[in-house]
UniProtKB/TrEMBL annotation:
One of its GO terms (cellular component) is membrane. InterPro entries: WAT1-related. The keyword Ribonucleoprotein does not apply. It comes from the Eukaryota. The chain crosses the membrane at residues 35-59, 71-91, 118-137, 149-169, 189-207, 214-234, 240-260. GO terms for molecular function: transmembrane transporter activity. It comes from Arabidopsis thaliana x Arabidopsis arenosa. This is EamA domain. Residues 1-25 form the signal peptide. Keywords: Membrane, Signal, Transmembrane, Transmembrane helix.
Length: 313
């Protein structure tokens, strides 16, 4: 596919995308996690599907028909996912005796008092809303600039420039903020830039074009399950029954969303075929080629008959 021409409006959207997630959302999330814990931050951040779903309805990027059971499943699945997150966060329950959590916990509990928790929750919430806006704007931008890899590259570039400007202002005179040694800090920065940002933007854009915005964000709560499991292994953090039940509820909600979205893309290739045939039909009518036009119409009818046969089966 030929990359679309860069226009001032597209460039403005890309610059705004670079500001929303690489600069605002990621920095506020990391700062909020500093005041709380990784599990708490990721739990609050995983309200993203609900926030994105509401914004998608407002911007008409997602439709809900209450008469359709699949549309209802999308709503129920989103609510169920948020409910699972709340269960993982608020319900503790008895401890689960796992063989890798027998030792003392290594989790850092510094800064988990009530004031730090409130401050961290506010920062993470703002970051979550910023990332939801990023997803909405990315979906809108892909309609006029449908080049996922190029868009991801531009977002990373603009995010780097804008992030450097913000750092110069916020860390004025603090030269140590720019220092990166051969330690875990370098690994963190490298992994975050390559996997979380570059690869995440590209894969998200590809899936977003084929399956929609809500489908992409529906998988975000899986981070909660991954963090809980890895925290119990790496930091020997105790696993509780509430987290296990919450993870199960999240999986159920995710399945409902995927099932509800499945009907929207049950025949992804046929609409494109019809659009191409219609376009060819219009061109041939303009050129006065009636014989070939009749052949195109015949193919279109055969295509519709084939779709009817599939749906009846």
């Amino acid at each position: 596919m030929v990359r679309p021409k860069m226009t001032p409006m597209i460039f403005f959207k890309i610059a705004l995308l670079g500001l929303l997630d690489p600069v605002v959302a990621q920095n506020l999330f990391n700062l909020g996690m500093k005041y709380t814990t990784a599990t708490f931050a990721i739990a609050l951040y995983n309200t993203l599907p609900a926030v994105t779903f509401i914004l998608a309805l407002i911007f008409r990027l997602e439709s809900v028909k209450l008469q359709s059971i699949r549309s209802v499943a999308k709503v129920v699945g989103t609510v169920t996912t948020v409910g699972g997150i709340m269960v993982m966060t608020l319900v503790k329950g008895p401890a689960l005796d796992l063989f890798w959590t027998k030792g003392p916990s290594k989790q850092n509990t510094v800064g988990t008092d009530i004031h730090s928790s409130i401050k961290g929750a506010v920062l993470v919430t703002i970051g979550c809303f910023s990332y939801a806006c990023f997803m909405i704007l990315q979906a809108i931008t892909l309609k006029t600039y449908p080049a996922e890899l190029s868009l991801a590259t531009w977002i990373c570039l603009m995010g780097t420039i804008e992030g450097a400007v913000v750092t110069l202002v916020m860390e004025k005179g603090n030269h140590s903020a720019w220092t990166i040694g051969w330690d875990t800090k370098l690994v963190t920065v490298t992994y975050s830039g390559i996997v979380c940002s570059a690869l995440g933007y590209y894969v998200g854009g590809v899936v977003m074009k084929t399956r929609g915005l809500v489908f992409v964000t529906a998988f975000k709560p899986l981070c909660m399950i991954a963090v809980a499991i890895m925290s119990s292994i790496i930091f020997a953090e105790q696993m509780y029954l509430g987290r296990a039940l919450g993870a199960a509820v999240i999986c159920v909600g995710l399945y409902l969303v995927i099932w509800g979205k499945g009907k929207d893309y049950e025949y992804p290739s046929m609409p494109q075929i019809d659009d191409n045939l219609t376009q060819s039909n219009n061109i041939l009518i303009g050129n006065g080629k009636d014989s070939v036009d009749h052949e195109v119409i015949t193919i279109s009818k055969q295509n519709k008959q084939r779709r009817t046969l599939i749906e009846s089966v």
